[in-house]
Every structure is written in structure tokens, then in C-alpha cells.
Amino acid sequence: MLTYQITKHKSKEDILQDSLVGIEFEFYSDKSLENVQKELAQLLGKKIRLESKAHSDFVPTDKEFKIEPDMSGGKGLMELVTGPTPYSVARNIILKTLGWIQENGYTTEKSSIHLNLSFDPKKTNKPGLISKMDSLKFVLGFNENEVYKLFPNRKDSVYAKSVKWIMPKIDYNYYEGQNINSHVFHFAKEKYYGVNFEKLQQGYLEFRYIGGKDYEKKTTNILYLLDRFLLQLWSISNQTKYTDLNYIELKKILNRNHKFTEILKDWRRLKDYYPEINLYVDLKDNEKIIDMYWPKILMEVVQLISHGGLEKGDINYDSDISRVQVNGGELPFCFDLSNYDFVDCKLAGSLSFCDIFRSQVSNATLLRCNLYQGTSVEGSKVESCYVNQTCEIKNSYVFQWDSVFKGKMIGGIFRHGQIGREAEFDGTEIITSKKIN
């Protein structure tokens, strides 16, 4: 349990009352977006702007919120986004909105509630408090297990990955327990962690942990975590030095990831930890050749394991095209993997700029990927991708105008894109499209 070093200056109640809370509710309803807008506006006593697309440019304020369709989760998914509001107002919004969802909507595993947290500089007299915070210090001080006890189904979510992942950069010596320096470590900085540190530059932190089926029925848990997030955020952002507990936590995480560090130093250690993974360069297992290319490919190889969950299969580096390829692997929680080739694999998670052949993809977010040779995709977001005529997309969301679709699509939503003459659709809702030869 965290101990708050600053409570002698501020009570728990003062810290909470000085906070600002923005909320993003993802939920489904059989009611029209227009009716939901009207009902929630009346319920919350706020003006709610109706947007026609997800992630619209309008930035909500404390006086005007927005609601928009989020077709990535299928028909009926919508998102209510509030501006930053005082703590007591935010609690009331959470209580009323969750109650409304219970009576008029529902949630699935694809639904979540995000909390955007900061502190009012007018009350704290601390401008830039969050934006100047040491994010590694937050990772080390944050009590993540508390979240997973209340929302255990979110522990392995690819959209709220654990922040407790830290590795020393290969250019630096292995950390021995002295003088923590955030610049010598790889750690949680991308969007799809449980805490989105990309928002720091905007002066707040986005907490993405909470969600899953029926989250609207867990009001007590959500309000409890709201308080815990705010108190920990205040405590850590006001600390200027790493504590003894921070040092202990860092050693614990590094010990857990020690095998990755060992593999980075010497690719031969791969077999010690993952005997069913084979490494090749140009389809040859010549040690001298692998030694020569290892400094170039080491992070890409290790990330297949640490960020994808790969435990068996063949990894090959094709030096002609400077590409790491995986054959016959299962990667159940790909996290921000980019610029790989996958052949005969099972994939889930977040992938970008990948070429995928004869593979099964489910519950994924694909960005600018190319799908070939009978690859199947189910329950996924497919953005700006090329889909060959041999491929099948099922119950998914295809979007962006630079998408080129020539395959078969069953169910789901084709938001916009270019459709080839070979394309087939069965029960798909096509919003807008352009025919191509």
C-alpha cells in the first residue's frame, strides 16, 4: 500500500477536491444516438454535442460534452466524452451515467471507461504539476495490483497493458541498484498501456484500466479506483526523489525481465529460455552470420516475445528486404508490433505495417497491414489495410479511405474505403465506399 508523504500538507479530502476529472464512457444502446444525446443531456444537466464520427476534433469542456459513434466495437457502440470537471461533479456524472447505461444500454469486453485526471492549478498553485512528472517514477510507485483485484479480466488486455514492464536499454550497463535514471530504460510510454503517458504533455494522465462486460454494474469499484488513482497521482507527482520502495520495485521488475536482457546480450541464450523458438538469418542457422546481424535485429526479436507472447515458432531475418519474419507462431497479445512478416501464425492485439500470410487474426487492431493467402480476421479493427481476395474478414470494422478491400466480409461495418470488383459482402453494413478495378 502506498504511503502518502505529503498528507501532512494536504488531507485526502483536499487532494480530491483539488482534482479535475474527465471521463470517457464506451457503451452500447439500442436507442439512436440522437435519443441517447437528449436523454443524457437532460440527466446530467449539460449540453452534449452530437458528433458524426469517432475521435472528432471537438474538445469537450466542463460546460459542453460530446457523444459520438464508435463503430470499432460494432453497431450500437457509442462514446460519451466529458471535459475536465471538478471531482464532486465527476462523481455525480459517473453515478448517473452508469445508472443510465444499466437501464438503457449494456457493455461488452470491448467497452471501457477512461479517467483523465489532473489537478486544478488555481487551487493547488502548482501549474504544470502533471506535465513535469517523472513517468518512470509513477510506474514504480503505482499500485497496479489493486486494479486487477477489482477488474481481473483487464489484466491481460492488449488495450490496457500492465505498466510494470521495464528493461534497460542495450547501450547501457545492466542496472545494479544505484542512481535511477529514466533515460537508460525502456518502459511504458505508448497509448495502449493501462496508463497513457502520451497525455502528460497535455497536462493530465489517462487511466485506461477499467472496463469489460457489465462494468456499469461496478460503480463502487470504479469510484474507489478514481480516488486511488488521484491520491497516487498527487503523491508521486509531488515527490522529487526516488524512494527506497521505488528501488525495490525496479529491481523486482528487472529481475522478472532478466531473461530478455540476457538474450539481448547473446542470442544463444534464446534457447535456454525458449527452446521451441528457432532463429535464422536468410533461412540459415549459421552462428557467424547470426552474430553479424544480431545487433541490427535484437530488439525486434525480443519484442516478439516480450510484446507478443511468442513462445514457439521460427524467426527469420531476411537481409535482402531487411525484415524480421515469423513462421508458425502464436502471438496472443501483440502489443504495438510493427514492420514484421507473419506466416501461418495466430495473432491478436495491436499490429501495424505488417504483411500477414495464411494466418488467423482475432481481437486485433490492424493499421496499414497487408493481408494475403487466405488470412482470416475476426472481431477486429482494420484501418488503412490491403485485403487480398483470398482473405475473409468477419464481424469487424474496416475504415479509412486508403483501405483497399478485395476479399470477403461477413457481418461487421465497412465504414469507408475502396472496394475491388472481387469483393464479397454478406450482412455487412456499408457506410460509404469507392469502386476500383
Give structural attributes.
alpha/beta; 2 domains; 11 helices; flat; disordered N terminus
Would you give an account of this structure?
By secondary structure, this protein is α/β, with parallel strands linked by helices. It folds into 2 domains: 12-251; 272-436, no CATH class. Helices cover 27% and strands 29% of the residues. Strands 14, 16, 18, 20, 21, 23, 24, 26, 27, 29 and 30 form an 11-stranded parallel sheet that branches. It has a 10-stranded mixed sheet with strand order 11-12-13-15-17-19-22-25-28-31, covered by helices on one side. Strands 1, 2, 3, 4, 5, 6, 9 and 10 form an 8-stranded mixed sheet that branches. A hairpin with a 4-residue loop joins strand 12 and strand 13. The chain is flat and about 65 Å long. Residues 1-8 have low confidence and may be disordered.
Alpha-beta classification: alpha/beta
pLDDT average, as an integer? 92
Give a short account of the largest sheet: 11 strands, parallel
* Cα radius of gyration in angstroms: 23 Å
The portion of residues forming beta strands comes to 25-35%
Q: How many DSSP H or I helices?
A: 11
Shape call:
flat
- What's the structural domain tally? 2
Catalogue the unreliable spans. 1-8
Helix content: 25-40%
Distance between the termini: 62 Å
Number of strands: 31
